[in-house]
Amino acid sequence: METAFLLEKLILVVVIFTITLVIAMYSTLAERKIAGFMQDRHGPDRAGAFGILQPLCDGGKFFFKEEIIPAGAHKGLFIMGPVIAIITACISSAVIPWGQTLTFGDTTITLQVAEVNIGVLYIFGVIALGVYGIMLGGWASNNKFSLMGAIRAASQSISYEIGLGLSLIALLMVTGTLSIGEIVAQQSGFVNWNIWSQPLGFIIFVTCAFAECNRVPFDLPECETELVGGYHTEYSSMKLGLYMFSEYINMFVSSALMAALYFGGYNFPFMHDLGLSANWITIIGVLVFFSKIFAFIFFFMWIRWTLPRFRYDQLMRLGWKKLIPLAIANIVLTGVIILIKDTFF
Description:
By secondary structure, this protein is mainly alpha-helical. It has 12 helices and 2 strands. Keywords: Cell membrane, Membrane, NAD, Quinone, Translocase, Transmembrane, Transmembrane helix, Ubiquinone.
């Protein structure tokens, strides 16, 4: 029985890992296609029909490019930086419930790698570790631009993780649990989605997620016009590819978290009124969940090609003087509403 359980989880890990890499790979193509559309041009269209093979060509280029390690770099930490970045990006999805359960005879498969009652804390712990990959890479490069990018990344991460955590405290006050699986299960029914009870918390969460993923308008750690390429200036070949992959994987996981915490995850309207079997409901729920994720990924890309980059002082001012006070006010407001409900209703 234990062997079957481990085999089930191993297969699930491999499937999720494969899907994550494929989505990250084709997010690069989607980004360039969306940029082309918004700039009135075609984007990549030479490698395969409509450029569908472009990500494979880009991956091949990364594998076959020359591997360069600067003479003054700390070799061990220089290699460890992108490795930490990609590992932390990949393991952050372990607690996300991708669907309900599938039943085949006496076998029940749960579409979640690890159902832990502190899933939200796990996500925060992994996010906090991810910035070490950037810091090590920037410092070990022995390049002043890389070091400046690493310092910016660390400062930005510390600043916006506070707002991110405070925005989720109000959500946890409403749901009463740290388990992401339970939070999603509570949102059965369109009217029960947390976006209706926590709209301000969601806006703060989305803004902080952009900063944590180093996406425009918060891409100061790799600001090309100021820092050449930021923390990965000295990287080439697949090490640079790992940094780029980790960014797109983080964007995918952030989108999954937004959908799971605020938009019902795999839940969709009238799911229990269709008269379908539980397995079909689960399959449709998985497809709905990924549709929500793709919508948020498109939102990430749309913002990138719409808004200009902040100055660094504007970025810090927004985090410390705007988002954190708003998040605290949201916690107080949520507490007052809960107290009124418990007292009068």
